[in-house]
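Chapter review: from sequence to fold.
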Amino acid sequence: MILIRKTLPVAAAAACAAVALAAGDNLQYWLDRAAPAASQPAESGTTSAAATAPAATQPRDDAWPGAIELSDGTILAGMIHTTRDQPWTVYVEAEKRWRLIPPLAVLSITAVVREESYEQEWRWAGMGRSEKVYTGRRYPFRRFEWTFRLADGSEITGVVKGQPIWVDSGGAVLGPFVLHERDKGPLGSRFEELIYIKRVIVSRRAMEQALSTQPASCPTAD
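The token string follows.
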């Protein structure tokens, strides 16, 4: 679950921008440098949201330039990375297998909301009884898949079961944000408060434009 306050750290606020993050932005740069996606099964448990956040004083040599757009319109720009030496691990239902995608092969990652509903809180009526008693309280629930657009022009859509991503923006590491299959908010909260990653764009041009824009204007990216 990603819970983000509207008052972001200074480094995060500086990353806001009035920039349209088109998926093909700076495409040729990455076509020249990226390899096609790997395709092989992964052992269960290869994704984890429990990765340790990197120190801001240790720049990552495996990070790539880009920007992350959140569902509330906030844009965070900088050097983006996931767990070191960990490819994106995606389960493709139509193929009944896991796909391993090297980060360098990715041009964009887009959230696909498959389900969105308010769920009712309940408890068992008593010891040994199968009857459910609803409390009248509810919480927002979403179910996701993720579409990976690759440098070879292909796309892979599937489930990511909890893989973290960070943004190094001006020396401050923001995150982890998590790409996951399911997310729910606190009891009584609304969908607007349950903020999630809307998309990730790999583009040096988008990153530089976002970082150079004054934080006063932070419209939703196209």
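Two observations follow directly from the output. The first helix runs from residue 10 to 13. The two ends are 24 Å apart (CA to CA).
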